[in-house]
Q: What sequence folds into this?
């Protein structure tokens, strides 16, 4: 119980600093908006989609993939912030001295990151749906599940690598370099599941992909939780 | 079927022995490590010459692919070398986190670097083979994708090491990268496999001719010996550099 309380205290602390500075959130919001616009400029807003989806534009056809690319690229900013603030204010030493199991620190940081990323997605998903003209109303519950699972895997590995690279001068380069190869399975499963949600699921594959995504999350979470104590050692 | 299982067990035992030797390096005095490496190097040279002769001259041309298939004698052994390299890096990284002996860090670095070398060799020879037989250099097949991601992961491992100066922090951080990256490999493989359901059947000894099998086996053993040779040499180099770093740090501390 003690560890759960410690993790919760860490979540509160992280959310409080984030609420006061809004550093991660502001950076993400502008970056996400820019990414959405750049996709539109790069792919052309009116270019028709492929034969498989008559009547849809290319942007609508590609939306599931673009959404996850935007989430990952934007989310990395918040993840690298989450330990950078600790390093800048000497908080890493405090975290290392924090009593109890180090897994509690991982859990606390992970939950705080999940909440920040969730807030970003809460804006990114509807705004991109509006900009690219995608009808999401009926699909919201399934989309929520997919987003949650995809973000969990992303945040688990992201928090782990953010802690690992926090002390580096080149952390802004190293975090994506290390993080993205490990995220490949999450990308594959999350984009596939999102596509099935948005474009319909005639073969009933969605449940399978959700389970695959859940399994990937489970493995990544386990490995990162078990090895986290080494990642924040001095 | 029984033949395949026996072959699999034999290959697995050989790879385990190679990795065990790699890990033992951390404990060996410099002289005997160098000697072991030299013996492996000479044996590799002999077997490479023999294997190339068997593969390029003795084995007949393939019925459909003609002479093009002969790149297989470099291509398959490269993947055996890749597996040995990354496995060594993985096991040595765990050993480092458990014991904190710098020797295991040097072994892990050597394994990762040589694994990456064979990995890139495998990717290049595969592309060159793919072009005349499949018509393309690259397809998004699970094995191709997984090996490419593997190369990026371990390239990231080496980049991370280059960015870190503190030997202990570098050893610890890179060990974690190697462990997470290695555990991720099967996950990448299966997720890509479910994502792209088409894939072609692996070649097995039953689908290729006897002279080709022997040439291939010779080349595989030769590449494993080559791996041991490179591993010992790389390890010696890492150890010399590591000792230098420690010495420099000691002088710095003494100077203050």
A:
């Amino acid at each position: 119980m003690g560890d759960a309380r410690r993790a919760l205290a860490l979540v509160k602390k992280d959310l409080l600093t984030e609420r006061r500075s809004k550093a991660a959130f502001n950076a993400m919001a502008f970056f996400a908006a820019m990414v959405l616009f750049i996709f539109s400029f790069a792919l052309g807003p009116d270019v028709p989609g492929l034969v498989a989806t008559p009547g849809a534009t290319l942007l609508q056809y590609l939306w599931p993939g673009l959404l996850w690319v935007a989430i990952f690229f934007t989310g990395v900013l918040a993840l690298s912030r989450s330990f950078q603030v600790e390093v800048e204010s000497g908080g890493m030493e405090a975290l290392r001295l924090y009593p109890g199991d180090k897994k509690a620190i991982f859990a606390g940081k992970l939950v705080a990151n999940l909440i920040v990323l969730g807030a970003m997605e809460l804006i990114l998903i509807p705004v991109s749906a509006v900009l690219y003209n995608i009808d999401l109303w009926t699909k919201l519950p399934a989309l929520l599940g997919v987003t949650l699972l995809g973000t969990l895997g992303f945040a688990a590995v992201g928090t782990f690598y953010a802690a690992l690279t926090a002390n580096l001068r080149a952390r802004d380069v190293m975090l994506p370099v290390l993080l993205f190869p490990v995220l490949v399975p999450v990308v594959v499963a999350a984009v596939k599941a999102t596509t099935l949600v948005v474009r319909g699921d005639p073969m009933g594959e969605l449940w399978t992909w959700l389970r695959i995504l859940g399994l990937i999350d489970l493995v990544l979470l386990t490995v990162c939780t078990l090895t986290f104590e080494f990642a924040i050692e001095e | 079927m029984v033949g395949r299982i026996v072959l699999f067990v034999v290959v697995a035992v050989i790879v385990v022995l190679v990795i065990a030797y790699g890990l033992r390096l951390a404990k060996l005095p410099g002289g005997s490590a160098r000697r072991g490496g030299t013996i492996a190097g000479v044996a590799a040279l002999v077997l490479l010459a023999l294997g190339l002769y068997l593969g390029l001259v003795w084995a007949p041309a393939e019925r459909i692919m003609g002479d093009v298939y002969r790149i297989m004698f470099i291509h398959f052994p490269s993947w055996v070398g890749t597996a040995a390299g990354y496995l060594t890096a993985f096991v040595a990284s765990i050993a480092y986190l458990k014991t904190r002996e710098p020797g295991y860090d040097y072994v892990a670095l050597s394994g990762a670097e040589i694994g990456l070398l064979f990995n890139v060799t495998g990717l290049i020879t595969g592309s060159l083979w793919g072009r005349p037989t499949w018509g393309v250099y690259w397809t998004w097949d699970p094995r191709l994708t997984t090996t490419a991601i593997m190369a990026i992961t371990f390239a990231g491992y080496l980049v991370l090491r280059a960015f870190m100066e503190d030997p202990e922090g570098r050893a610890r951080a890179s060990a974690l990268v190697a462990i997470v990256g290695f555990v991720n490999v099967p996950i990448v493989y299966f997720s890509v496999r479910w994502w792209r359901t088409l894939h072609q059947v692996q070649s097995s000894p039953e689908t290729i001719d006897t002279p080709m099998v022997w040439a291939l086996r010779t080349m595989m053993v030769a590449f494993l010996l080559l791996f041991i040779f490179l591993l010992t040499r790389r390890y010696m180099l890492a150890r010399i550099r590591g000792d230098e770093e420690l010495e420099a740090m000691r002088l710095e501390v003494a100077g203050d």
The longest helix of chain A spans residues 58-88. The mean pLDDT of chain A is 87. The interface with chain B takes residues 157, 160, 164-165, 167-170, 174, 177-178, 181-182, 184-185, 188-189, 192, 212, 216, 219-220, 223-224, 227, 230-231, 233-234 of chain A (CB under 8 Å).
